[in-house]
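My main concern about presentation is that the manuscript never shows what a single data entry looks like. For the editor and my fellow referees, an illustration may be useful. For illustration, here is how one protein appears when written out as sequence plus structure tokens:

***
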Amino acid sequence: MENTMKMYITADEVAELLGVSRGYAYKVIRGLNDELKAKGFRVISGKVPRKYFQEKILWNGCLEERGDEDMPATRDGKLWRSQFYYKDWQGVRRKKNKRGFKTKGEADEWERNFLQQQQKNLDISFENFVEIYFADMENRLRESTIINKRYVFDLKVTPYFKHKKMCEIQTSDIRAWQNELIKKGYAPTYLKSINNQLAALFNYAVRYYDLRDNPCRKAGSIGKSKADEMDFWTKQEFKEFLPSMDSKPEARMAFLLLYWTGMRIGELLALTYEDIGLEKRCITINKSYQRLNGKDMITPPKTPKSNRQISIPPFLAEELKEYCSMLYGITANERMFRFTKSFMEHEMVRGIKETGVRRIRLHDLRHSHASLLVEMGFQPLAIAERLGHEKIETTLNTYSHLYPNKQAELAEKLEIANGEE
């Protein structure tokens, strides 16, 4: 019995050692026991193995400094409130107060997670480190990018690593996660995208939290950065599709612009009347439209070079002129297309079923325009400028497979050149 007591430390001893209230000492013990249970060990309520306490608290110094101001979770009417003090990133002692928890356990768990997220080391759960990552990155990335990253983490990443500590995730864990994704039969490009999101998180941990190495780098990548084949419509296929939009002039004009200019769908939906230069036959691209969380959002274009002017042929200028004449009372800064991407996708599916043309995605109309330009003999630099690519490498990597068709033509012209005097 005496040996058992020596093996375990009680709340009274923890309170005395750390100089905290007995209530907070119980919180410390409960948190450590939760960690042990997660690892498969049996625990005793109100006590924790003395050795484990020494390793995790006394030697590692993981506990925030506490004083008489410590306030355990308290009743707040029918709900519970969490109140405690912590030190912010500048070392300033601050009070945290959050209400609305259904149980005391929920309030205590929220406090533990919050305090973990204030730590500057990686002895922290993966789930809490993800919150640190997003709190930092949401100030540096577009809102749409954050929403997409959140979606991937919430569904494909965090559930797998949720309770693991960042400092304990190994290459073998990454490989096991990758194998689970592969079994689900996702497209190679989607597998690559998911894997890149996790790799980015660990790169962040390496760069800013001194993680020794990125386990994703050792595990290797999965999937492919681009699809084996690119879907696009030929000019003939687009002309077969277009009559299906005759009863909806706004959709017809939108599809004409997407195919003959190669602009992105967000750029199209953000167009205002003042962006259309009918006399000079050009369209100014300087913003993008997205619908995020039920709100209409106008944001800057995808990249700096996406700010551009697109020249249009006379026939498209005439189509635009006729369309604009139907927009009664439109103001200079009013959007010309008052619908969303989902409307365009629905109309595209309807038109494909009606005409029987090959099925492609809405974004593939951009590829269709690029392939048309390649076929007409335009060089990658001109195509990159028209599409608003930040680097010409993007154009080459995306459309280089379309250029081999020109090799025979090139050889023939060299033969002609050789025969000329």
